[in-house]
Amino acid sequence: MNTNKEKEILQKLRTNSSHDEAFTLLVTHYKESLYFHIRRICISHQDSEDALQETLLRAYRHLGKFKQDSNIYTWLYRIATNEALRIIEKRNRRKTEDIDKMYNLEQGNIWREDADKINILMEQAVAKLPTKQKIVFSLRYYNELSYKEIEKITDTSQSALKVSYHLAEKKIKEYISSFLL
Amino acid sequence: MINLEEIKNKHTSAYKVPEGYFEAMEARILHKAKREKRLRLSLKIGIVSIAASFIIGIFTPWQQSQKINYDLDYVLENASNDELEQMMDLVYMDPLNI
User: Fold this and answer.
1) How many CA atoms, within 13 angstroms, populate the side-chain half-sphere of residue A18?
2) I need a surface site. Which of A69, A152, B73, B85 has the fewest CB within 10 A?
3) How many CA atoms lie within 13 A of A15 on its CB side?
4) d(CA B43, nearest CA chain A) in Å
């Protein structure tokens, strides 16, 4: 995580008059990583868009109450994870099909045309993981958060997180190998 | 065996995102945040106005009733016997004969 940006945002938060500036910086800096974290959980762009919008608006509403002894990004990822989970729970109430049928992961047009095959396989493998493993893997692998930080985001013990990550990694490797060999 | 660290692609994800989405989303969120701030401010002003009207509505009649009580005490203390009798007549006057 970019600590300079984090410091800049925190500095602006300390002066009440620059709350809006702090929020603008926060949106500019974290929008993409938050979006892809949410997208890996929700898969559909529409759902991710809704979850991201709600995440950022929630952050805006509670920015004044943010405890400055913790990191902004762990706080943001916590909100984003909860929003994504809320959206998929709502979606699961409406639909019962599995994600393969819903999003056509293998042939669907949800992948960038210029993306490497290996990266697509990687994202497909992550999309097929159970939600908990998906969250842990996304935060650890793509966002490079420590287990301590992920513990704060998910309220799960570090040992349970390590097990989840290990299982996710194993499944992903198996999935990719089955296509490459 | 596959090494996941080797295929890590931190900055771009393979998921397709509509072109210009992030810029448009940022502008929309900042606009929504500004609108929410304005709405909250209007709501606060509204609540303060209602509270102020309520306090004024209660306090002013109470203050006036206090003044009337004070004036009546003053008149009764300083009135002569004749004036007191006239006042008593007015108090006990049959409303139908006014």
Assistant:
1) 12
2) A69
3) 8
4) 15
How many other C-beta atoms lie within 10 A of the C-beta of residue A53? Answer: 15
> In degrees rounded to 5, what are phi and psi of residue A111?
-105, 145
Give CA–CA dist A35/A167, Å, rounded.
24
The number of residues making up chain A comes to: 181
pLDDT band per the 50, 70, 90 thresholds, residue A9? confident
Q: How many residues belong to chain B?
A: 98
The answer to whether A44 and A97 have CB atoms below 8 angstroms apart is no
Answer yes or no: are the C-beta atoms of A173 and B2 closer than 8 Å: yes
Residue type, A151: E
The string of pLDDT tens digits covering residues A120-137 is 889 999 999 999 999 999
Interface pTM, i.e. ipTM: 0.81
CA end-to-end span of chain A: 35
Q: Which residues of A touch B (CB under 8 A)?
A: 20, 23-24, 27-28, 31-32, 35-36, 39-40, 45, 49, 52-53, 56-57, 60-61, 109-113, 115-116, 118-120, 122-123, 141-142, 144, 169, 172-173, 176-177, 180
Q: Which residues contact B18 (CB under 8 A, 6 or more apart)?
A: A45
Structure-token pair, residue A95: 């639909």
C-alpha–C-alpha distance, residues B72 and B78, integer Å: 10
Q: What angle do CA A164, A170, A175 make, to 5 degrees?
A: 125
**Cα A10 from Cα B35, distance rounded (Å):** 23
Which tops the pLDDT comparison, A79 or A7? A79
Q: How far apart are CA B42 and CA B46, in angstroms?
A: 6
